[in-house]
Amino acid sequence: MWCELEQENFFSEFQMEGVSAENNAIYLELTSENLSRALKTAQNARVLKIKLTNKHFPCLTVSIELLSVSSSSRVVTHDIPVKVIPRKLWKDLQEPTVPDADVSIYLPVLKTMKSIVEKMKNISNHLIIEANLNGELNLKIETELVCVTTHFKDLENPPLASENASQDRNSEQMAEVHIDIRKLLQFLAGQQVNPTKATCNIVKNKIVHFDLLHEDVSLQYFIPALS
């Protein structure tokens, strides 16, 4: 998974000094649950500050100013342990590259997909996703006893993807990928907001790449094909 947040869309003040002028970045590793738990207490915050601190060990300090009933404020502080990743390992943490997709298609409503995939999971651990350049997307499971397919029609294909692929590809021809249904469900179950756009990019028999855009957040999710 790869998520990007533009800092100017979230923070009114932002100060950061990286390792050097050429490498103006800091890479941190932390337990996401700890950060999530800290931010949940900030839902009604007047001010939220996040700082990298050193309290005998590196911490991400989340300082939350809350208004009380008497209109006086109180500050809640969370110190989240982090691991500072050395520069020699940065090359392993770059945005994943994706080969050119055979088919790109906009997804239907994610809640609808989640409901369908949850039912399919009771039949098989494997799922086939297939789509074409004619706005059609199918979710299929095949076992020795049963074959179940859910069809989505009249979806749209991203214009650029359609133009690039249509030169040498029949618009009716399906591109498919076999994946672990549990990984797809993990992706669908983790969506707390409805994205403004959700794209599915299929590289035949290799990978399915989901790209979600929601206002100021970009979220990419990669599921490799089963061998």
From TrEMBL:
<dbReference type="GO" id="GO:0005829">
    <property type="term" value="C:cytosol"/>
</dbReference>
<dbReference type="InterPro" id="IPR007150">
    <property type="entry name" value="HUS1/Mec3"/>
</dbReference>
<dbReference type="GO" id="GO:0000723">
    <property type="term" value="P:telomere maintenance"/>
</dbReference>
<keyword id="KW-0539">Nucleus</keyword>
<dbReference type="GO" id="GO:0035861">
    <property type="term" value="C:site of double-strand break"/>
</dbReference>
<dbReference type="GO" id="GO:0009314">
    <property type="term" value="P:response to radiation"/>
</dbReference>
<keyword id="KW-0227">DNA damage</keyword>
<dbReference type="Pfam" id="PF04005">
    <property type="entry name" value="Hus1"/>
</dbReference>
<dbReference type="GO" id="GO:0033314">
    <property type="term" value="P:mitotic DNA replication checkpoint signaling"/>
</dbReference>
<dbReference type="InterPro" id="IPR016580">
    <property type="entry name" value="HUS1"/>
</dbReference>
<comment type="subunit">
    <text>Component of the toroidal 9-1-1 (RAD9-RAD1-HUS1) complex, composed of RAD9A, RAD1 and HUS1. The 9-1-1 complex associates with LIG1, POLB, FEN1, RAD17, HDAC1, RPA1 and RPA2. The 9-1-1 complex associates with the RAD17-RFC complex. HUS1 interacts with POLB, HDAC1, FEN1, PCNA and RAD9B. HUS1 does not interact with RAD17. Interacts with DNAJC7.</text>
</comment>
<protein>
    <recommendedName>
        <fullName>Checkpoint protein</fullName>
    </recommendedName>
</protein>
<dbReference type="GO" id="GO:0031573">
    <property type="term" value="P:mitotic intra-S DNA damage checkpoint signaling"/>
</dbReference>
<dbReference type="GO" id="GO:0044778">
    <property type="term" value="P:meiotic DNA integrity checkpoint signaling"/>
</dbReference>
<dbReference type="GO" id="GO:0030896">
    <property type="term" value="C:checkpoint clamp complex"/>
</dbReference>
<comment type="similarity">
    <text>Belongs to the HUS1 family.</text>
</comment>
<dbReference type="GO" id="GO:0000724">
    <property type="term" value="P:double-strand break repair via homologous recombination"/>
</dbReference>
<comment type="function">
    <text>Component of the 9-1-1 cell-cycle checkpoint response complex that plays a major role in DNA repair. The 9-1-1 complex is recruited to DNA lesion upon damage by the RAD17-replication factor C (RFC) clamp loader complex. Acts then as a sliding clamp platform on DNA for several proteins involved in long-patch base excision repair (LP-BER).</text>
</comment>
<keyword id="KW-0963">Cytoplasm</keyword>
<dbReference type="GO" id="GO:0006289">
    <property type="term" value="P:nucleotide-excision repair"/>
</dbReference>
<dbReference type="GO" id="GO:0005730">
    <property type="term" value="C:nucleolus"/>
</dbReference>
